[in-house]
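Tutorial, part two.
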Amino acid sequence: PPVSGNYLVVVDSPDAEHAGAFMLSIQSFSPPQNMICEQATPLSLIKGMTSLEQDTSNLFNDLGALISCGQGTPLVGPQAYYSIDLEEQTYQFILQTSFSAVLALGSTCLTFPIDCASNGLTGTALAVPAQAVGSLLFSPTQAGTYILAVDGTSSSAAGSYNLLIQEYSTPENGICVQP
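Running the prediction step on this input gives:
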């Protein structure tokens, strides 16, 4: 709960036929900082890049309800949030996951669902199948801090992932090659 205090827990069954004895266990849980959008872990580019290896297995869906980014891509799994300062230039985001994931990018936690569905205006999203690598190019329309989420595509989609963020320059010969 967002506020400490006394809470009432009610356990009920759908009808008398399903009534019976049960055991209830309540445990304290302190969520990792980056499980909540407003507490996104800051990332910094060092020499134009940053990379990390993380896991969403012990995280939860902080969004609560079904939210979609781009082509109906749902953000329903456990999320890991990061914040990063970006300039008005092109960046490449490369995500390798062990689970079916979404890489979503937006300008603030409040506008995140709209941003990541804006097809690059203020954010974007990329679906990455399990055991695959996805690459996304993003050019912010204005410099600032952006929110990045690594999310599972279902409530059970979680696991390890590698994320690489780097400044990107268009090849001089004009030919783009998948890394």
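The chain has a mean pLDDT of 84. In part three we will examine how such features are distributed along the chain.
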